[in-house]
Every structure is written in C-alpha cells, then in structure tokens.
C-alpha cells in the first residue's frame, strides 16, 4: 500500500488525519487506491467511518464524495461503481454516512447492479433517519 492509503487505514492512531494532510502537502497522490480492493482514499475513509480523514480529503478535493469505484472481478457482482456513501452504509458507519449527506453526497448514483445507496441500505427509513441526524449534525 502507498503511504496515503496506509495513513487512511491507521484509523486509531490518527483519527483527525494529520498524517494524511501532511502527506498530501508533501505531494501525496489523492488518486491512490488500495492494492487489496482497488478503493480510493475517500472510499477507504468512509468504509472505516473516519470522519476526520474524510474531512481532510473533502477539503483537498470536494468532488471526492461522489467518486465511484471501478469494478473488481474478484469482488463479485455489484462491486463496481461504489460510492463512499454506499461503503459507509454497507459498513454501518452511520456518522460517516450522515457526514457525507451533509456535504451533498449524491444518493441517486447506482452501483454496477443498478442499486443506489438507498437501495443498498435496504431501508428508506434508514436514509430518512440519517438525513434527520444530518439536520441536527453538530448540535
């Protein structure tokens, strides 16, 4: 893994993403992907629920919240075109999903099976509850 990917995966040691920010300032590649699963930095941060690192990445490139992942043959059907929101929902990282929604994450993007984040979550009520949480975020 690259230093940028490694800095995302070390969530307990650096929850605010100081190392990630430093690496980016030193020329780290924001387009790095994990060699294990071909996910980019925002996907990895969302999947681990690391809001501090998501915040750093968003500050460096706001478009990263809706980047879709490429398909990976070994990951099975539906593994392609995942968004950070889908990964947060799939991993039950509700605070991360709420944060992404508060930044305007697109809920209508579909994965390679045609499923949206709402469909992948399995419950419309879940997104409604998450949206309600976003409206009260920071209170």
From TrEMBL:
UniProtKB keywords: ANK repeat
Annotated PROSITE patterns: ANK_REPEAT
ANK repeat residue intervals: 80-112
Protein name, as recorded: Uncharacterized protein
Species, as recorded: Florenciella parvula
